[in-house]
Amino acid sequence: MIHNISDVPNPLRTHRLLVVDDEPTVRDVVSRYLQRDGYEVRVAVDGPDARQSLADFRPDLVVLDIMLPGDSGLEILREIRQRGDLPVILLTARAEESDRLAGLELGADDYVVKPFSSRELTARVRSVLRRSTPRAALEELSFDGLTIDSARHEALVDGTTVELTAREFDLLLFLASSPGQVFSRGQLLEQVWESSTDWQDPATVTVHIRRLRQKIEVDPHNPRWVTTVWGVGYRFES
User: Fold this and answer.
1) Which of 109, 180, 187, 227 has the greatest number of beta carbons closer than 10 A?
2) In the predicted structure, residue 11 carries a pLDDT above the cut 70
3) Alpha-carbon distance 191 to 33, whole Å?
4) SS3 227
5) Residue 171 dihedral angles phi and psi, to the nearest 5°
């Protein structure tokens, strides 16, 4: 069983990272570079090992390979999302596009395609952790029935808290901070993911927009807040 994975990380201590991959070389290289970057790292080789580590290590972020023996990485991700918003970065092979999209649909915060550079992975880890760690109090954005509290890192619809992943929240906050302005998928990758179309598939944005609508919109197919400007991008309606 997976326990206590939605606990807010304490920014005053070293972040704990769990690396789940059945390839010894990948585990060794990834953990070594992350430790060099100052993180406390534990590794797991399969689903049962990952579940045990989630329970007793209580990581702040998981680097999770999709192709695991036995339980797939997607199954582990599904269990994580059923219990909290622990940040997850998927490791995928270049040929696994459908699995990448399935992972994003399940709530993965980001993904890295094998083979990848250590610099790329550590940059993604820093970005996701920065966006998932509560910061000093900032302004609260309030609209008709929607409140976005950046200090508490939460969104409320009609007074009820909506469970968003770190990336979904940051996407909503970015769009809502500039109501009426249209952003292309490339611009959103640059501003929210701190990435580009050279590293990231623009479909990542599409999937996150769809998931965000499912959580904050009364009718996701006829959105009130996050609308599509066909041929251009997306806009937040105040």
Assistant:
1) 109
2) no
3) 25
4) strand
5) -65, -45
Task: Look up residue 2 and give its two tokens.
Answer: 């997976």
Amino acid at 102: A
Per-residue pLDDT, averaged over 205-212, amounts to 94
Residues 6+ apart with CB under 8 A from 179: 236, 237, 238
d(CA 138, CA 70): 44
> How far apart, in Å, do the first and last CA atoms of the chain sit?
42
Q: Is the pLDDT of residue 133 over 70?
A: no
Crossing angle of the two packed helices 118-132 and 166-176, in degrees rounded to 10: 70
- Report how far residue 216's alpha carbon sits from residue 110's, in angstroms, rounded to the nearest whole number: 21
What are the helix (H) ranges across the chain? 24-36, 47-56, 73-83, 97-106, 118-132, 166-176, 185-192, 203-216
Percent of the chain with pLDDT over 70: 88
Give exposure, 94-129, as e/b (b: 16+ Cβ within 10 Å).
Answer: eebeebbbbbbebbbbbbbbbebeeeebbbbbebbb
